[in-house]
Amino acid sequence: MSSPPPATPPPLLPEPARRLAAWCAVILLVTGVISVGVWLSIVFKSSVTPVLLALLGTALLRPMHKRLIRMKVNRSLAAALTCLAVLAVAGGATYIVVAALIDTGDQILASLRKAADDLSRHFGAAGTSLEDIATNAKDLATKFGGTAASGVLTGLSVVGQMLATAVLALLLIFFFLRDSDRAAEGLRSLAPRSGGDLVVAMARRAYGAVEGFMRGTTFIALIDAVCITVGLLILQVPGAIGLGALVFVGAYIPYLGAFISGAVAVLVALADRGWVIGLWALGVVLAVQVLEGNVLQPMVQSRTVQMHPAAVMVAITAGASVAGIIGMLLAVPLTAAAFGVLSELRARYETNETEPAEPA
Question: What are the tens digits of pLDDT across the range 224-236?
Answer without folding.
Answer: 888 888 888 888 8
